[in-house]
Design goal:
This protein is an alpha+beta fold. The protein is built from 6 helices and 11 strands. Strands 1, 4, 5, 6, 7, 8, 9, 10 and 11 form a 9-stranded antiparallel beta sheet that branches. Strands 2-3 form a two-stranded antiparallel sheet. A hairpin with a 5-residue loop joins strand 4 and strand 5. Helix 3 packs across helix 4. The chain is globular and about 55 Å long. The N and C termini lie far apart (67 Å).
């Protein structure tokens, strides 16, 4: 009887493990991303707008990011920092270096633009940086991001206005890709660095001292200012898994 009970317990435990494993697989499938390189796709919230043939698209072809699988339920995102043409080489390299130890999470959030039945978009969040830095590091970092940007004066004024030369900051850089329900398409909805001032206890302020929108810098280089497609890159851009020439 004891042996029978033990066998029953083992079978129950095994079934439970299988159930949890199945749930994990289903969950991962629900939040899965198609791995590969994603190129700029002329669209309004990932709905095609304008020229779509390879020849026509070739005029504005830019690889935005690459999604790389990293285990059973993880992904890495590699941003095309070379497309940030107004950044210095040091600034581009700094952003790329952050991707070495990124953390990935996924979840659902309501979206009026999503095609999914439940009205949610799947949000894929990549935390590239989360660390404390000093003022000198902040200045050097901003110099790499500020070349030829209109933000340069804004950054300078903020730094000059600081009364504490020993100020410390929490630096947070992240990327958000949104799956709106279209096959092989992901919307780059956020790519930014926030710098929060730390108080004497090391607690970060609720409001960022400086925010650098790398996504805006990327979008601004896609079209001329008089292009009819600029309106579709105002707040986000869609990337399509696509090979040039196909």
């Amino acid at each position: 009887m004891q042996i029978g009970s033990a066998v029953t317990a083992i079978n129950h435990f095994t079934s439970r493990l299988l159930f949890l494993a199945t749930c994990a697989v289903l969950s991962n499938t629900a939040f899965a991303i198609e791995a590969g390189q994603y190129y700029y796709f002329i669209s309004d919230k990932c709905v095609a707008k304008g020229p779509q043939t390879p020849e026509e698209r070739g005029a504005v072809i830019v690889m935005l990011f690459e999604v790389v699988p990293a285990g059973i339920s993880d992904y890495y995102v590699n941003m095309n920092t070379s497309a940030l043409i107004h950044y210095t080489e040091e600034g581009q390299a700094h952003l790329s270096s952050m991707e070495a130890e990124q953390a990935y999470t996924a979840g659902k959030a309501p979206s009026k633009d999503s095609l999914r039945k439940d009205g949610n978009a799947i949000q894929h969040d990549f935390m590239l940086q989360r660390e404390a830095i000093d003022l000198k590091t902040l200045i050097n970092t901003l110099n790499g991001f500020s070349q030829l940007q209109s933000d340069k004066g804004y950054f300078f004024k903020k730094i000059v206005g600081l009364s504490n030369p020993d100020a410390k900051f929490k630096a947070i850089t992240r990327v958000r890709l949104s799956d709106m329900g279209y096959d092989n398409r992901m919307m780059l909805t956020s790519y930014s660095s926030d710098y929060f001032m730390l108080d004497e206890q090391g607690k970060a302020s609720d409001t960022a001292f400086i925010t650098v929108d790398h996504g805006a810098a990327l979008r601004n280089s896609l079209h001329d200012t008089n292009s009819p497609y600029v309106i579709f890159t105002k707040n986000s851009v869609c990337g399509e898994k696509w090979e040039p020439g196909n």
